[in-house]
Amino acid sequence: MSVRALLTTGLLAAGAVASPQWGGNNGWGNDKTVTVTKTVTSSHVSTATKTVTATGSCKPSSVTSFSTSSSTSHSSSSSHSTSATSSATSSATSSASKSGSSSGSSSASSASSSSSSVVATTTTSSATNTNPTTTLVATATATGLDTAAKAAGKLWFGTAADIPGTGEAQDPYWSAEFNSSDFGEATPANIMKYMFTEPEPGVFDYTGAEQFLDFVEGTDKLVRCHNLIWQSELPTWITSPNVTWTNATLSAALRRHVTTLIEHFGDRCYSWDVVNEAFSDSPAGAYQSNIWYNTIGAAYVVEAFQAATDAVKASNLNVKLYYNDYNIEYLGNKSYAAQNLVKDLKNRGIQIDGVGLESHFIVGETPDKASQQANMQAFIDLGVDVAITELDVRLNVPATAATEAQQVLDYYNSVAACVAVGKGCIGVTVWDFDDTYSWIPGTFPGQGYGDLFLQPGGANTTLVRKAAYDGVLQALTGAPESSA
Ligand code: XIL
């Protein structure tokens, strides 16, 4: 029995969520409901036996019903075992952790890759700083998200990595998963940003970026280089100059930065996010007030893309040039502003190859598949690619069975939209894959649990795939509703 997504309207939490800095808008409809029937019994040394039963109704387009029963036991915070029985008729053994562990083992009876089921398990109290009460665990046979994405005509399924930075590269379990067939692309979460690459005027430092590339290269991953011009993570010599910037002096600094980085990294970058987050949420689609806009005006975006275009041409590079932003994942004034930017650059003969849809979503507020698909198509119709560049779906912690089920659907809908528009959506990148290293808890207090994996025992222990992983895999392997 195929499972494309999970949701019961009756289970939906009345989602009180913090006002988002990235992503999230009220009013997005969830026009799909799913039948979920599962009975779960979990026991844990520190947790009472739990039973969850959920049912709901189903609308047709992307979901079918399923039922699962499972039992889970945890013997300690660093080891666990899981067993599950699924209603699926075919079964295969699947490891709940792709990276393996000497301290834990997990197996589940599940369907083949075209089928999947979800079990719930209780995580340890030391699991993560998000401290979920319930975890829906993926049980689909892991063919690899990147493998599935490529089979769907995408260039990759990828992930951000904060290297060097969070220590994730030193976590052997994180590293094993990073190097698995789940990921065919990597984005440096921070280390190529302005403050790191040009800490002093005209003094470029590639030390950290080279560490990132050393870690990634040789693993058959493409790299989305991120980013050249943004309002955040700037060096103080830009934000607090000794001599007040003029249009001419700041434009010169902008051009030097863009040109130097593009030329230095060359075709090691599949693409560059040339300008990041130029548009405001309030009023939506206006230019964001920042040092660049306030000094140069809207022309700074054009100047950055012109400098990038010139550098690509001068060095005869294949690098794709992207505009990247959040809250442009659905049609609205901010998306229209980005579309107008694409048109403007093209009219000027300036290179722009794609638009990055960050997709920092909130459980229950994620735009539905149709909304995301229509928005992607609008960009594609302008002659540019799109990519989902920073996908995560956060929730108020602790997670509940309802919010986790909704998270599966939100992940599913986002990836399914990319599949549905065909090759114009080149790939999907998650903003890290492991809650342990996610930026969410530090940025959005009270929220977390937004990634595809968690480590029940914390850093340096086995990773467990969440049900959201199955949602992504199902979206990648499901038949597209249309193709470009
Ligand atoms: C975030 C990083 O993940 C954090 O570690 C850092 O503290 C702030 O930036 N949009 C972007 C990314 O384009 O660069 C941001 O990354 C997340 C929002």
UniProtKB/TrEMBL annotation:
**EC nos:** 3.2.1.8
Q: In which pathway does it act?
A: Glycan degradation; xylan degradation
Q: Name one GO molecular function term.
A: endo-1,4-beta-xylanase activity
The record's keywords, sorted A to Z, are: Carbohydrate metabolism, Glycosidase, Hydrolase, Polysaccharide degradation, Secreted, Signal, Xylan degradation
Q: What is this protein called?
A: Beta-xylanase
Q: Which InterPro entries match?
A: GH (IPR017853), GH10 (IPR044846), GH10_AS (IPR031158), GH10_dom (IPR001000)
What Pfam families does the annotation carry? Glyco_hydro_10
